[in-house]
Design goal:
The chain is of the alpha/beta class and about 180 residues long. The chain contains 5 helices and 8 strands, in the order E-H-E-H-H-E-E-H-E-H-E-E-E. The chain has helices at about 30-40, 50-60, 70-75, 100-110, 125-130; strands at about 5-10, 45-50, 80-85, 95-100, 115-120, 135-145, 165-170, 175-180. An 8-stranded mixed β-sheet has the order 4-3-2-5-1-6-8-7, with helices on both faces. It is globular.
C-alpha cells in the first residue's frame, strides 16, 4: 500500500496558513532543493484541494527558468484535485476527484501500486484526511518565523498518540525538516 504523506511548510508557532510573506516557493538554498528532489523521487502523485490546485496551476506551469525544479516536477507528476465544482482541471496529468466523499477516493489511490502520495497546502483537505486516519507520515518544513495567527496543521480537538519522529534535518536557510511516522 502506498503512503499518504502530508508535506507542509509551517511556522514555528504551528501555522500552515500563509498570511504573511514567510514562505518563498522559489527559495533555491542548495541543500533544501536537494531534499526537495529526494522527496520528489519518492512520490508519483500529488493530492491537493481546489484552491491550492488553482494557485499551483496559475503559477508553476509558467516558470521556465525555475532553479528549484519544482515546476518540472509539478508539470510531470500525476495530480489529483479534490473539488465538487471543478470539471476540467486544465493542467496536464490532472484528475478531478469529487469532493463529496474524498476519503473513499484516497483509500483507492493508496491501494494502487506506486510511490508516495503527497498532500501539501490544502488545509481543509488535510484536516479531512487527518480526521479519517489516512495519513501515514508528516514532513514538516519548519520556518524560523512566528506568524502569531493562521490555521494550524491539526484541527482543534484532534489527538494522535501513535506518532514518532523518524528524521530531522536542518538547512542553510534556517529551515528544519521534521519527519513523523504515524502508527
Amino acid at each position: 500500500m502506498r503512503k499518504l504523506v502530508i508535506t507542509q511548510n509551517i511556522t514555528l508557532d504551528g501555522s500552515i496558513e500563509m498570511l504573511t510573506s514567510w514562505f518563498d516557493p522559489t527559495d533555491s538554498a542548495p541543500d533544501l532543493v536537494e531534499e526537495s528532489h529526494r522527496q520528489d523521487a519518492q512520490a508519483d502523485a500529488l493530492l491537493v484541494g481546489r484552491r491550492t490546485f488553482e494557485d499551483f496551476r496559475g503559477y508553476w506551469p509558467h516558470q521556465h527558468d525555475d532553479p528549484t525544479g519544482v515546476a518540472e516536477y509539478l508539470n510531470g507528476v500525476d495530480k489529483y484535485v479534490v473539488s465538487s465544482t471543478m470539471t476540467d482541471p486544465n493542467w496536464q496529468n490532472s484528475t478531478v476527484l469529487p469532493g463529496e466523499d474524498v476519503t473513499d477516493s484516497v483509500r483507492e489511490l493508496k491501494a494502487r501500486d506506486g510511490k508516495d502520495i503527497v498532500v501539501t497546502g490544502s488545509i481543509r483537505l488535510t484536516h479531512r484526511l487527518i480526521a479519517a486516519d489516512l495519513v501515514d507520515e508528516y514532513r514538516l518544513f519548519v520556518y524560523p518565523v512566528v506568524q502569531g495567527r493562521g490555521r494550524r496543521l491539526f484541527p482543534d480537538g484532534e489527538e494522535i498518540t501513535t506518532i514518532a519522529l523518524s528524521e530531522s534535518k536542518s538547512f542553510s536557510n534556517g529551515v528544519a525538516l521534521l519527519t513523523y511516522r504515524v502508527g
